[in-house]
């Protein structure tokens, strides 16, 4: 063995020998993996399978690759074009992994891909960084474009990282910063190079605010995929913190560790905010007029970035599941409080929708997480989750829309079973948001609405059949399948959907075209009327009130005539309004908004009678106000006025308070009758002219009539009482 030279001894004593050997070994590992990929690619193409043969045919492969790239550019977006045999995805579905989502392994296998392809992604990331480095003027222009394209993210930078937006420093300062940056990058690269040794001894890199700062700068200024990958690896470690080994799974394989709450919050917010910006730079998209999303695929497809996005999305879903939500309506700051972090995660997850639409496995998991939050969390989280579902619905194809419609109704049903004064506002919010989703695509909603309304009819039919068998115990049990909160809420929900979709305003906006959902009005009304006829007991008058309110919504919005007066006046015919039967008591007044069945202790009491009378007068006023602009109004109210006057004369109209309210109602109805008779004296068409009859008082609301104006004031009084009751309930809950 020859004698060592002085130069070698000096080099060895400087400490660089170890680094050189380590770098050489890493280079050999990367080269070996690249050779394996070339061999695998050659096997797929039917070419030489030996590594040496691959190197000998390198020139030919380069030519073939150029030809394949040209074919890829021509066939991208065409169904059935390309495939994995060429080594490049040819369609959007292949690009974002629709085929691989159904394979075994699930989320864990996808997360593991992040580690197995580190070297390949680092090389691609370095190439991208070299291409994307901009000068000072270019960065200023890029920041202006960012402010236009994503004002929300730009505002976030101004509020939290304003110095990242500052440019135009002196050359000396820039040179110093560049040197500092080089030193930091060298230090960071040393940490990355020590990764293999650290994994061997079980050590991990502790994430610091300085490291996060470097990643932020690289992602913002260079759109660095390499920095994005490091950020996502650290984010995965943060998402799996404080978990057992069995639960944590692949989170244990990450090379980063989080040691403080400040770093955790900064890392999570950075990942959520910066990831969509970097991905949008490499995979841009356009939002079309109707909310559809069109991806603008690059000429050179970056499949490692695709896997990176899907793997990150799986981690993000895991984080959202693990974050608890509070029922409080007060939203915390994004950097403070668990609820604020959950809201931020939900809102930022919607920005990744363009790249997961084709990944149906991830999309289903995402929808399930959102609907779980929508059906069980506080109102602030509930609204954020629904907005994400709505964006998914608008951007997706018919299959995605079908998935959203079917699952949102299924998620709505379980909470409806438990209705209390504390949960009713949240249930109303859920019904309002779900009905909005069904009204976005009436044609697709029809098949779902038809099936679910048919289920309501089947339940009612079974109860009617069981009531004719003569088995008393079975009848009582059968009634419970219909006379419950869930069934009543379903009728109310579908009245919102059909009333909103088939409304007069929508028909005018659609140039007179009827909504596809309008044919379902008749079966829904028949179901509602059948439920009211099922058990005419005074204990279930509160349930009847809920159904009447749902039918009144249909009348008001669609202009459909439904004869509700007989069902309202049946309450006046009951024994509860006989003055001799009313008992005085110390019971509290009932709030019919929160009950569907009255307690037996309230029967034949003064407080129950007055509560029924107040609700009866309000419903009669609402019903006649809704039809007060029709030309046949004088004939419609004649039976009602006669019936009420007969009860007042016989003394079966209840207490003096109820009688006084009924007399006021009669005055308003008669005044409206005179108003309509005056208006129709000047018409020149006959009753057979249906078109002209519908145009009578067209453009005038119910407020122009005496009963309509009176009911407007009654609604204000009723709403004021409702706010006072809700305020008292909130104070009671706080105490």
TrEMBL record:
Tell me which Gene Ontology terms the entry assigns under biological process: ribosomal large subunit biogenesis
Q: Which GO terms describe its cellular component?
A: Noc1p-Noc2p complex; Noc2p-Noc3p complex; nucleolus; nucleoplasm
Family membership: Belongs to the NOC2 family.
Q: Which Pfam families match?
A: Noc2
Highest taxon of source = Eukaryota
The Low complexity compositionally biased stretches are 1-15
Compositional bias, Acidic residues, is annotated for: 104-136, 180-199
PANTHER family, per this entry? NUCLEOLAR COMPLEX 2 AND RAD4-RELATED, NUCLEOLAR COMPLEX PROTEIN 2 HOMOLOG
Q: Which cell locations does it reside in?
A: Nucleus
Q: Which InterPro entries match?
A: ARM-type_fold, Noc2
Keywords of this protein's UniProt record, alphabetized? Nucleus
Identify the species of origin. Cryptococcus depauperatus CBS 7841
**Name assigned to this protein:** Uncharacterized protein
Q: Does the keyword Membrane apply?
A: no
Species classification? Eukaryota, Fungi, Dikarya, Basidiomycota, Agaricomycotina
Give positions of region: Disordered.
Answer: 1-140, 168-199
């Amino acid at each position: 063995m020859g004698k060592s030279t002085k130069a070698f001894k000096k080099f060895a004593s400087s400490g660089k020998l170890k680094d050189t050997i380590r770098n050489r070994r890493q280079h050999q590992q990367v080269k070996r993996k690249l050779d394996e990929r070339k061999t695998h690619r050659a096997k797929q193409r039917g070419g030489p399978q030996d590594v040496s043969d691959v190197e000998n045919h390198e020139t030919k492969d380069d030519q073939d690759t150029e030809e394949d790239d040209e074919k890829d550019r021509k066939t991208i977006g065409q169904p059935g074009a390309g495939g994995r045999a060429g080594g490049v995805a040819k369609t959007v579905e292949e690009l974002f992994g629709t085929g691989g989502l159904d394979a075994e392994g699930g989320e864990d296998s996808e997360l593991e891909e992040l580690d197995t392809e580190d070297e390949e992604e680092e090389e691609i990331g370095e190439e991208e960084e070299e291409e994307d480095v901009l000068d000072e003027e270019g960065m200023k222009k890029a920041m202006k474009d960012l402010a236009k394209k994503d004002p929300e993210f730009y505002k976030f930078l101004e509020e939290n990282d304003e110095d990242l937006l500052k440019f135009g420093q002196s050359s000396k300062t820039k040179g110093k910063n560049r040197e500092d940056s080089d030193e930091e990058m060298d230090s960071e690269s040393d940490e990355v190079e020590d990764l293999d040794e650290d994994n061997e001894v079980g050590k991990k890199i502790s994430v610091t605010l300085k490291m996060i700062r470097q990643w932020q700068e690289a992602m913002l200024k260079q759109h660095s995929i390499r920095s994005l990958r490091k950020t996502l690896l650290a984010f995965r470690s943060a998402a799996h913190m404080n978990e057992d080994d069995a639960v944590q799974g692949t989170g244990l394989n990450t090379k980063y560790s989080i040691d403080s709450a400040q770093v955790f919050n900064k890392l999570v917010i950075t990942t959520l905010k910066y990831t969509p910006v970097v991905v949008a730079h490499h995979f841009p998209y356009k939002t079309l007029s109707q909310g559809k999303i069109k991806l603008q695929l690059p000429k050179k497809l970056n499949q490692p970035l695709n896997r990176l996005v899907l793997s990150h999305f799986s981690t993000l879903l895991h984080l959202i599941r693990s974050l608890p939500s509070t029922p409080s309506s007060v939203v915390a700051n994004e950097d403070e409080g668990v609820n604020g972090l959950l809201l931020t995660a939900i809102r930022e997850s919607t920005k990744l929708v363009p790249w997961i639409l084709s990944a149906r496995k991830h999309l289903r998991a995402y929808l399930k997480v959102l609907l779980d939050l929508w059906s069980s969390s506080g109102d602030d989280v509930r609204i954020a989750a629904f907005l994400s579902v709505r964006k998914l619905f608008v951007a997706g194809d018919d299959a995605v829309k079908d998935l959203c419609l079917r699952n949102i109704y299924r998620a709505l049903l379980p909470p409806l079973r438990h209705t209390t004064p504390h949960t009713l506002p949240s249930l109303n919010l859920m019904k309002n948001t779900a009905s909005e989703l069904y009204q976005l695509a009436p044609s697709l909603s029809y098949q779902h609405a038809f099936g679910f309304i048919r289920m309501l009819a089947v339940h009612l039919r079974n109860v009617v059949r069981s009531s004719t068998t003569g088995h008393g115990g079975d009848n009582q049990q059968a009634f419970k399948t219909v006379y419950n909160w869930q069934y009543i809420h379903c009728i109310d929900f579908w009245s919102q959907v059909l009333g909103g979709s088939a409304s007069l305003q929508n028909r005018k906006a659609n140039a007179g075209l009827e909504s596809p959902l309008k044919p379902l009005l008749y079966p829904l009304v028949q179901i509602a009327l059948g439920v009211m006829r099922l058990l005419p007991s005074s204990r279930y008058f509160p349930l009847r009130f809920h159904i009447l309110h749902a039918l009144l919504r249909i009348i008001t919005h669609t202009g459909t005539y439904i004869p509700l007066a007989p069902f309202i006046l049946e309450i006046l015919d009951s024994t509860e309004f006989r003055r001799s039967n009313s008992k005085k008591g110390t019971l509290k007044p009932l709030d019919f908004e929160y009950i569907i069945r009255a307690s037996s202790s309230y029967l034949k009491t003064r407080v129950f009678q007055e509560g029924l009378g107040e609700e009866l007068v309000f419903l009669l006023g609402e019903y006649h106000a809704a039809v007060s602009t029709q030309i046949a109004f004088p004939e419609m109210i004649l039976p009602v006025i006669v019936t009420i006057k007969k009860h007042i004369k016989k003394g079966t109209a209840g207490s003096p308070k109820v009688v006084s309210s009924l007399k006021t109602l009669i005055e308003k109805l008669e005044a409206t009758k005179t108003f309509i008779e005056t208006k129709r004296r000047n018409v020149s068409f006959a009753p057979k002219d249906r078109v002209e009859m519908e145009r009578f008082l067209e453009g005038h609301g119910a407020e122009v009539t005496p009963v309509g104006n009176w009911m407007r004031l009654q609604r204000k009084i009723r709403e004021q009482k409702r706010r006072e009751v809700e305020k008292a309930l909130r104070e009671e809950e706080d105490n």
